[in-house]
Amino acid sequence: ATLFIADPSGNVLEFKAFKDSDNLFAS
């Protein structure tokens, strides 16, 4: 699975094969 989201700066971030959606915004 591949997710495309736009961050507040308007940049498109790509996340591939996230098993846990909680990791999406982990830093």
Query: What is the succession of H and E elements?
Result: EE
Question: What radius of gyration results from the CA coordinates?
Answer: 9 Å
Number of H- or I-type helical stretches: 0
The oligomeric status of these chains comes to single chain
- Give a short account of the largest sheet: 2 strands, antiparallel
Structural class: mainly beta
CA-to-CA gap between the ends? Answer: 20 Å
Strand order of the largest sheet: 1-2
Residue runs with pLDDT of under 50 for 5 or more positions: none
Globally, the shape reads: flat
What percentage of the residues does DSSP assign to strands (E)?
35-45%
**Helix proportion:** under 10%
Number of strands: 2
Could you describe the 3D structure shown?
Strand 1 and strand 2 form a beta hairpin. A two-stranded antiparallel sheet has the order 1-2. It is built from no helices and 2 strands. The protein is mainly β and 27 residues long.
